[in-house]
Amino acid sequence: MLFIPLLPLNVGRLCALLILLTAFFHPAYARIQAGGGIELDVTRVIFSEKDKNGVTLKVHNKTDNVFLLQAQFKAVDPSTGLASGSVAAIQPMPFIVTPPLSRLEAHSELVLRIRRNEVPLSDKKESVYFISLRTIPAQKREEKTNYVAMVVVTNLKVFFRPYRLKKRVIDALSAEVRFLRNKNRLIVKNPTPYWLTFASLQIGHFHFDNDHLRLMVPPQGERVYRIPDRVSGEVKWELMDEDGWKTEIKRQEL
């Protein structure tokens, strides 16, 4: 959990300095510590096309403080696997979230509703976006000139699954992943219509770090990872399921 309290400054009439932080969390937590006492019920959102009324996301404020909560959708940056503000600025988002801006009272719960709009999505394979939540501490009257505020930004993946795709299936798909090696490149083949996220991935004694793991393998596509020349051995992997839990370990000889 990332937390920086409001700090008074000994400099007159300074503008507020907003420190933007992204909250990262362990996928095995049933409830997400988004930072600063804010909690979420899920690690990711699965939106089925069958959910005609949309889906909900609960935000819990466990503190004595009041926050402003801003919610918006962002695209996935394919080069990093992170939320991309620049792509979202020019690409229409296929979802709306209500309320987009709200007051989150102390020791309260807020329910966000996510709905589809008219922006088309594939009806044959899964699509993925981020819902980005910004929690901004409410200012007290005496703090309006000299203070440092923290804004915590929490990005959750939202997976949209068309009618033909099952809502819970990732655990069964782990065995369908295939690996090829071409010199210092590991090529991961995903024959399924779902986005796949590795919870762990290793070759022999070489473990891929989080920068690699957040690069999802696209549906019916592939992902290429760079590996050291002298690395050898079998591939072992775990996927992350719909609840953020690790699937059973699978193995394949290269």
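Second entry:
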Amino acid sequence: LDSLETLPSELQRNFNLMRDLDTRVQGLSKNIEKLSQTYMNHAKTYTIAERAEHLENIRKMFEKAKEYGDDKVQLAMQTYEMVDKHIRRLDADLARFEAELKDKVLNVQGSDSESGTKKRGRKTQEKVEKKKSKRGRSMSSDDEVPKPSRKKLKGQVSQSAEVPLLQSISISHPSDVLDMPVDPNEPTYCLCHQVSYGEMIGCDNPDCPIEWFHFTCVGLTSKPKGKWFCPKCSSERKKK
């Protein structure tokens, strides 16, 4: 771009020179026309020497005009080459600038892609950690003794998980529960009024005050087929 600063002044100088050459050629053309007209009007009166002299003057003027014309053409070609040289230089600079810009864009995209990969990696790691945390909480909750829900359908059997501290102990009778650490706020069930443990079954009477019973307390070893009613509800149904 710095080289373009001198281009306007150089063009102006060349154009002024070409204008000056045009002016000289036009002056010579007028002189040639006058000499030619004079020669044609007085050719018969001129001697051979005078004719030769007039013709020589006209020829010299033509040669001078031709020189001016050649100089003008040469100057025009120089001006064209000068402008063309600057155009080629600008094209080269533009191509280099576009290449540099493309490299910068690729570098930015590469850094963005790398940053996005790192972000996705962090998000994936966070998801894995969340899953591990949820799995840990799930495993922790599975270790607790589940409480039978009163919203379960009647007749469903609930298999309570074993307490971790008593995993090696087989609970077969409500009296064994007395040795277990019991939360005073935990609800009690069954005829024995103890907390939930082992396999339990729900009474199909929707008005049953107890609802859930231990298999061992009601003399069951497996889930019965069809509807099942607790001893109290069965006796009341027989009375009806």
